[in-house]
Write a structure and sequence with these properties.
Elements (H helix, E strand, L loop, with lengths): L2 E2 L10 E4 L6 E2 L1 H14 L7 H5 L6 H8 L6 H18 L5 E2 L3 H11 L5 E5 L4 H10 L8 E3 L12 H10 L6 E5 L2 H10 L2 E5 L7 H4 L4 E3 L5 H5 L19
Parallel strand pairs: 2-5, 2-7, 5-6, 7-8, 8-9
Antiparallel strand pairs: 1-9, 3-4
Length: 246
């Protein structure tokens, strides 16, 4: 189902920025296995997959800190993160797959727009495993750039990474759509003055209730229709992006 709070003027869009985990790919199980491997290594109790899923979205350091219960020993956190990353690098594609319908949606967006839509990935996951997953799943050709949580000095929802992509592509904020599964992506869009599209099939759909996106979808199959809905909302109005209030 497509729900419109502020309809997106698709005819003006030039740049689509996608989140990775929970948006393009279902990486939940591999991340959970890596977290639990780290917990076993340091004699901690393993956590359920659905609990670990709630810790995902703010980057690997925060994921590990949350899984460990926010310890004060920074050396311990650093060692645990190092082990997690080493394990995850080797196992990042054991179970991870693109969500059903995502490759087809990306192909349609690219082909239907005759190249007008440029697409990029901006994730809080470290950049090397992010690029490895995109390449391993055969989706490299869709994206002009892939940036991760360690590509810049700040992470989403700070808008710096988004602004770099705007500068690199020459797109204006009002010509750009951020697509993601959590409030982190919605806030990134707002902080950069961009449009936002939320997906409820990802890891943190409940956070989209607190910070609702301009448009919300429940399935990858709805992505192209949602972006192609044009500027007229269900009420027949053409709302301005500025002045949005929750």
């Amino acid at each position: 189902m497509i729900r419109v709070l502020r309809s997106i003027p698709a005819e003006h869009l030039k740049l689509l920025i996608f989140d990775l985990d929970g948006t393009l790919v279902d990486s939940q199980l591999d991340l959970a296995h890596a977290v639990n491997a780290m917990l076993r290594k340091f004699d901690r109790a393993e956590l359920p997959v659905d609990v670990i899923a709630t810790y995902i979205g703010d980057g690997a350091p925060m994921l590990i800190r949350r899984a460990l219960g926010d310890p004060q020993d920074e050396r311990f956190v650093k060692d645990a993160l190092h082990y997690f990353m080493a394990y995850y690098r080797e196992h990042k594609l054991d179970n991870t797959q693109a969500y059903a319908g995502i490759p087809e949606a990306l192909s349609e967006l690219r082909d239907r727009s005759n190249g007008r839509f440029r697409m990029a990935v901006l994730t809080n996951k470290p950049v090397n495993p992010s690029r490895g997953i995109i390449e391993g799943l055969g989706m490299n050709d869709f994206f002009l750039q892939i940036y991760g949580g360690n590509s810049f000095s700040t992470k989403k929802p700070d808008p710096f990474g988004a602004r770099v992509l705007l500068q690199e592509t020459g797109a204006a904020p009002e010509e750009t759509l951020m697509i993601g599964d959590s409030q982190v992506d919605v806030l990134t869009a707002r902080n950069a003055g961009m449009w936002s599209l939320g997906v409820t099939y990802g890891f943190a759909p409940e956070s989209l209730q607190k910070h609702p996106p301009d448009v919300l979808i429940d399935s990858p199959s709805e992505l192209t229709s949602a972006i192609g809905m044009g500027a007229v909302s269900r009420e027949g109005e053409i709302p301005a992006r500025e002045g949005f209030t929750e």
